């Protein structure tokens, strides 16, 4: 296996555009790539930038139903045919010309990332344009048309992977990926998200733990609204490493939605950029310690499209490339100019940090506090799934 990392990129991914006023503004993708370039990460010897072809029919059918794909293609050719069925033509997922082509292109980048890692072309691969984890086998949902994380995992299994672990730190539950692999003991899905009582999609309870023949392979940590850095990182480290050690994955797939941030307009957590960076570093470390270094990292949600998303995902790419950007680093002036030209915003972050330390109390060292809502959430998850892996809650 070669070392290094591969960054999946095609300028045409900006065609995934639900229109003016929609929270998922594709400018977040182009601004992220421009920030990566401004730091020269695309020229790092440890990083190769490459594109992949769009996901074809045989690939899409690894996860999605034929009737759904047919509808997406029909709506793509004529958006006026969308009537809300199959989740298309709704407020969350408006119809637009070329929706199939744009969605299949993003899916293709995630599948290409998975192929590059499994076939030994790269140790790590990143597709920050992906992470569209809400799409269901037969419907669009939550800004997601095709479920590229599930497609990447399905392709890994098709190529011969025996165990794949998926970690989702988006603020929203990774419901689509969980649904696809609910009955598959080869896939461990772990989702760390805001409590379903408070946020879309209303699923992701600790008791959702997998199908009859896959008990314990769906893991859900439902976090109280307002959870900040210390609690978020405490929960992540209290659940993930022990499960990975027990599951022994061949490859790690991670989803890094940036909408956990305190400034995100669609959710209610209080996580900083520095904690998001710490989570990416943790996933990188777990890949090396527990998955032979094989790591596929994806983007996801994130609706503070200037202040948060580009910095968060630039950190992710830099970590994968072996050229981490120190948090105190000043943001390049050329990127600030790009922000102004693309958005009209004259203010943007000046450093790659929110000025937080991103520290937490380790679960095993500090013990369980029965009066703490965060600790209650963590314990509920551990009780629901740890015994199925031979672990003590």
From TrEMBL:
<feature type="domain" description="Histone deacetylase">
    <location>
        <begin position="22"/>
        <end position="318"/>
    </location>
</feature>
<dbReference type="InterPro" id="IPR023801">
    <property type="entry name" value="His_deacetylse_dom"/>
</dbReference>
<comment type="pathway">
    <text>Ketone degradation; acetoin degradation.</text>
</comment>
<comment type="similarity">
    <text>Belongs to the histone deacetylase family.</text>
</comment>
<keyword id="KW-0006">Acetoin catabolism</keyword>
<dbReference type="InterPro" id="IPR037138">
    <property type="entry name" value="His_deacetylse_dom_sf"/>
</dbReference>
<dbReference type="GO" id="GO:0004407">
    <property type="term" value="F:histone deacetylase activity"/>
</dbReference>
<dbReference type="GO" id="GO:0045150">
    <property type="term" value="P:acetoin catabolic process"/>
</dbReference>
<protein>
    <recommendedName>
        <fullName>Acetoin utilization protein AcuC</fullName>
    </recommendedName>
</protein>
<dbReference type="GO" id="GO:0040029">
    <property type="term" value="P:epigenetic regulation of gene expression"/>
</dbReference>
<dbReference type="InterPro" id="IPR000286">
    <property type="entry name" value="HDACs"/>
</dbReference>
<dbReference type="InterPro" id="IPR023696">
    <property type="entry name" value="Ureohydrolase_dom_sf"/>
</dbReference>
<dbReference type="Pfam" id="PF00850">
    <property type="entry name" value="Hist_deacetyl"/>
</dbReference>
<dbReference type="InterPro" id="IPR003085">
    <property type="entry name" value="AcuC"/>
</dbReference>
């Amino acid at each position: 296996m070669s070392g290094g990392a591969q960054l999946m990129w095609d300028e045409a991914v900006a065609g995934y555009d639900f229109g003016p006023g929609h929270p998922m503004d594709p400018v977040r993708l182009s601004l992220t790539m421009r920030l990566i370039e401004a730091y020269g990460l695309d020229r790092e010897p440890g990083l190769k930038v490459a594109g992949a072809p769009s996901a074809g029919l045989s690939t899409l059918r690894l996860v999605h139903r034929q009737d759904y794909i047919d509808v997406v293609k029909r709506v793509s050719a004529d958006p006026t045919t969308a009537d809300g069925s199959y989740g298309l033509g709704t407020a969350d997922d408006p119809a637009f010309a070329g929706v199939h082509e744009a969605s299949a292109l993003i899916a293709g980048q995630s599948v290409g990332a998975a192929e590059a890692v499994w076939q030994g072309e790269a140790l790590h691969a990143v597709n920050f344009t992906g992470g569209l984890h809400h799409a269901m086998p037969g419907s669009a949902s939550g800004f997601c048309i095709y479920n590229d994380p599930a497609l990447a995992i399905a392709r890994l299994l098709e190529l011969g992977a025996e165990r794949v672990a998926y970690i989702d730190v988006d603020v929203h539950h990774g419901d689509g990926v969980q649904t696809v692999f609910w009955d598959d003991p080869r896939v461990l899905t772990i989702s760390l998200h805001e409590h379903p009582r408070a946020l879309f999609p209303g699923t992701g309870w600790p008791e959702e733990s997998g199908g009859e023949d896959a008990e314990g392979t769906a893991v859900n940590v439902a976090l109280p609204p307002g959870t900040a850095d210390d609690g978020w990182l405490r929960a992540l480290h209290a659940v993930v490493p022990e499960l990975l050690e027990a599951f022994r994955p061949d490859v790690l797939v991670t989803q890094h939605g940036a909408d956990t941030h305190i400034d995100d307009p669609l959710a209610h957590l209080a996580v900083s950029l520095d904690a998001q960076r710490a989570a990416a570093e943790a996933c990188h470390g777990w890949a090396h310690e527990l998955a032979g270094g094989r790591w596929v990292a994806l983007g996801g949600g994130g609706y503070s499209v200037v202040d948060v998303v580009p910095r968060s995902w630039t950190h992710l790419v830099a970590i994968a490339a072996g050229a981490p950007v120190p948090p105190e680093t000043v943001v390049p002036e050329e990127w600030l100019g790009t922000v102004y030209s693309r958005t009209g915003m004259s203010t943007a972050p000046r450093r790659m940090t929110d000025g937080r330390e991103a520290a937490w109390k380790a679960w095993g060292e500090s013990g369980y506090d029965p009066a703490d809502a965060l600790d209650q959430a963590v314990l509920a998850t551990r009780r629901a799934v740890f015994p199925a892996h031979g672990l003590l809650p």
